[in-house]
Design a protein that fits this description.
Blueprint: H1 10-21, H2 30-39, H3 46-59, E1 62-66, E2 72-77, H4 82-94, H5 100-111, H6 116-119, H7 139-152, E3 154-163, E4 169-171, E5 178-188, E6 191-198, E7 203-208, E8 212-221, H8 233-239, E9 247-256, H9 260-267, E10 272-276, E11 280-289, H10 291-299, E12 304-308, H11 310-325
Antiparallel strand pairs: 1-2, 3-4, 3-5, 3-8, 5-6, 6-7, 9-11, 9-12, 10-11
Helix pairs in contact: 4-5
């Protein structure tokens, strides 16, 4: 058979057709594959189709030829199965830190990992109550730059902004550049945070990645590595409420039994829970004490009480009194 100018592309195009157009419920016969190749100006015969499919199998593609209806060739297994792709699409769609545009781009790329028939099932709209997509597209690239800095073992500089009542992004510290040694990224409370060491302040700090601007990699090597040798992101997330800074302390808290699930969800199954009288239990938990922690405690109402240390009890009492002072009785 004379070879067409596209003959060298035949095997690649055949693989593309099988990946894009076939699955278990949508096989293509040899005649249909020949027709699809013809649309691409590639001539093929049944014998060469059989040989090419065998070559693809040897290459590692799981191509099955089903004899019973619906008969034909199809890709039986892929790098990502359809349920896995659905999970990834749902995660992207629901992620708050991704803009709506970037979510759409990622989902379209994920659709290319399935057949065009299965891709229709990936066009899902996941509704999450109160979801607000970020407006800062740069977070997508900020994460990449921070990872690059960690792998290159260098510090970074950046500006850090805050929102004003006029809805303007205003750089903090009059636009002064922060210089931090990044060590890890943490996903908490639907936001990305960078944890790093501030050499000037001699302490570990964290920053919202979507509030970081103009990230630059410096030539200076990172420091503070010894503070992160035994660092556990999960433990840090459990004890830090809303990523608000504060002093880490070991607290004894008394809860009503009905709140056991709330405590376990917050602090993990390894938390120490000791039965107490009158339908209560006592928990010992490490907590970064902050106003955000006190707010969480307020939400539990009379079902939760701080027992010790006394300094935190005093601080919580002052917190509650300050709240009450805003609502004086007439």
């Amino acid at each position: 058979m004379p070879k067409s100018c596209n003959q060298k592309m035949k095997l690649l195009c055949l693989m593309q057709i099988l990946l894009e157009q076939t699955d278990e419920t949508h096989p293509l016969t040899a005649a249909a594959l020949i027709a699809e190749l013809s649309r691409r100006n590639i001539r093929a015969e049944r014998k060469t189709i059989y040989d090419d499919i065998e070559t693809l199998r040897l290459f590692g593609m799981d191509v099955v030829n089903r004899k019973s209806p619906p008969a034909g060739y199809f890709v039986a297994s892929r790098r990502f199965e359809l349920p896995e792709l659905k999970l990834l699409v749902d995660t992207v769609q629901a992620s708050r830190f991704l803009t709506a545009r970037k979510s759409g781009e990622l989902i379209r790329k994920l659709e290319q990992l399935a057949s065009r028939h299965e891709a229709r099932q990936l066009q899902r709209q996941v509704t999450v109550a109160g979801r607000i997509k970020t407006m800062n597209e740069s977070i997508y690239y900020n994460v990449d730059k921070i990872h690059e800095a960690i792998l290159s073992d260098v510090r970074i500089s950046f500006q850090y902004f805050e929102w004003t009542p006029d809805k303007e992004a205003r750089p903090r510290h009059h636009g002064r550049l922060y210089q931090i040694s990044p060590h890890t990224l943490l996903w908490d409370n639907e936001n990305y945070y960078m944890l790093g060491y501030d050499s000037e302040a001699h302490k570990v700090k964290h920053y919202r990645v979507d509030k970081m601007l103009q990230i630059r990699l410096l030539k200076d090597r990172r420091d503070g590595k010894d503070l992160f040798q035994d660092f556990n992101p999960a433990d840090f997330s459990r004890m830090t409420f809303g990523m608000f800074a504060g002093q880490k302390q070991l607290l004894r808290l008394r809860f009503e039994n009905r709140l056991a699930g709330v405590v376990i969800d917050r602090f993990g199954k390894d938390v120490s829970l000791q039965p107490d009288e009158d339908g209560h239990f006592i928990a010992r938990v490490p907590v970064t004490v902050s106003s955000q922690f006190f707010g969480w405690l307020c939400g539990l109402g009379t079902g939760a009480v701080i027992l010790s240390p006394e300094s935190v009890v005093t601080e919580y009492r002052a917190f509650l009194q300050a709240l009450l002072a805003q609502y004086p009785q007439e």
